[in-house]
Amino acid sequence: MVEQISYGDPHSPSQAEMLPGVTPSSASFQRRLLERDQTCAICTACGHPEPIVPSSIHGVHIIPAKHRQFWDSRGLSRTITDQSVLGSDDLMSSCDNGIVLCQRHEHDLANFYISIHPETHVIVSFQPPTAELHGLKITTPWDCQNPLLPPPNKDVLHLHFVSCISRWIGRHAYAREPDSDSLSSGSDIESDE
Ligand SMILES: [Zn+2]
């Protein structure tokens, strides 16, 4: 599950640091992503840069920390460009692995209903409830010109994208083979559904 931290004022890092259970590392992750993206990147792509519930936006991990084994197996730590975390043991909390979303779109990403194409940054919908998002291009993280706040890493996006494809295939192509569980053999990450 992606990190569940909300802020009354997303542009107030001091408030974030006051919340119980927020570590300096996670507070920095939140603060830097909010500085880079400003608001939900998907709502912005929809033409609604102001979220319906402003307090619901926050930075989320594209690959959640609990999937560290998949992160390590793909060697993703070697692809990180975020200078602020290089040398630390928490490279998953880098801007390369984060994006600001509202709660609705966090749900869609965390449960693999949608993914962001690693090369084109276009949203691909894998489930009917998110069909309206299909084809929208995410631009906000890539619009930021601060080299200290890099956008999502294409290798990170690739792992999320192929995980969506695997889950989609698992639900459709192998629907007649209930005993087949080949797709849970460790090739992709699982959601919290
Ligand atoms: Zn949103």
Note the main attributes of this structure.
two-stranded antiparallel ribbon; single chain; HNH nuclease domain-containing protein; two-stranded antiparallel sheet; 7 helices; binds zinc ion; 32% helix; 193 residues; globular; HNH_nuc; 4 strands; mainly alpha
Ordered list of secondary-structure elements with their pairings:
Elements lengths: L12 H6 L5 H14 L3 H5 L12 E4 L6 H6 L24 E4 L1 H8 L3 E3 L6 E3 L14 H4 L10 H19 L21
Antiparallel strand pairs: 1-2, 3-4
Zinc ion binds next to helix 3 and helix 5.
InterPro entries: HNH_nuc
Protein name: HNH nuclease domain-containing protein
Pfam families: HNH_2
Structural class, by secondary structure, is mainly alpha
How many distinct beta strands?
Answer: 4
Please identify the oligomeric state: single chain
Bound ions, cofactors and other small molecules, one mention each: zinc ion
**How far apart lie the N and C ends?**
9 Å
Number of domain modules: 1
Radius of gyration: 16 Å
How do the helices and strands follow one another from N- to C-terminus? Answer: HHHEHEHEEHH
Q: What is the mean pLDDT?
A: 82
Helix content: 25-40%
What coarse outline follows from CA principal-axis ratios? globular
Into which percentage range does the β-strand content fall?
5-15%
Spatial sequence of strands, sheet with the most strands: 1-2
Helix count, per DSSP?
A: 7
Biggest sheet statistics: 2 strands, antiparallel
Model regions low in confidence, pLDDT < 50 over at least 5 residues: 1-19, 180-185
